[in-house]
Amino acid sequence: MNPTDQSKFPTVVIIGGGFGGIQVAKQLADKPVEVILIDKHNYHTFQPLLYQVATGSLESESIAFSLRKNFEGQKNLRFRHTEVSKIDAERNVIITSIGEIAYDYLVVATGSTTNFFGNKEIEHYAMPMKSIPEALNLRYMVLQ
Length: 144
Ligand SMILES: Cc1cc2nc3c(=O)[nH]c(=O)nc-3n(C[C@H](O)[C@H](O)[C@H](O)COP(=O)(O)OP(=O)(O)OC[C@H]3O[C@@H](n4cnc5c(N)ncnc54)[C@H](O)[C@@H]3O)c2cc1C
Known about the structure:
By secondary structure, the chain is an alpha/beta fold. The chain has one domain (3-143): FAD/NAD(P)-binding domain, CATH 3.50.50.60. Helices cover 28% and strands 27% of the residues. The protein is built from 6 helices and 9 strands. The chain has helices at residues 3-6, 19-27, 50-54, 67-70, 120-125, 132-143; strands spanning 11-15, 34-39, 43-45, 64-66, 77-81, 84-88, 93-96, 99-102, 105-108. A 4-stranded parallel beta sheet has the order 5-2-1-9, covered by helices on one side. Strand 6 and strand 7 form a beta hairpin. It is globular and about 55 Å long. It starts with a helix and ends with a helix.
């Protein structure tokens, strides 16, 4: 996918449909750019409510919403459901599970992972809670 062949506007690729990526995408709504928003999930996770999913007071669908639907009114944005494995900054392309995607400007908003501070034993036994599957794992363990 080579945006410079298709559009007269520069292409902004945003990796990550979390709070950061969504905010950038919205701010670019009326700007002369083509926006490609990429996430490995087709939904946004509202992380502050993961506790409620883990403790059984909310269902997971209450804290996840479709990224594609959220941006369906934004004409200059396309959503791609794929995982980015590499950034080739020399060629201005990112490598994803659906192929290469070219960019003029790149925003990396991929969030963070749980930090075990190098403690392999804690990493092995602990149950982190940064995603819906992880919150559900906790919930099932508590119920069992
Ligand atoms: C349990 C919990 C409770 C919290 N409570 C609060 C709170 O009360 N108040 C508060 O202000 N903050 C809270 N936070 C923190 C807040 O949720 C984060 O600071 C915020 O989500 C960070 O936003 P982000 O856009 O940087 O990353 P994220 O929201 O993590 O989004 C990153 C996105 O990038 C995608 N992604 C990652 N890697 C790739 C890849 N290689 N390819 C494609 N897509 C990728 C992910 O799927 C994800 O959608 C909480 C966090 C947690 C875990």
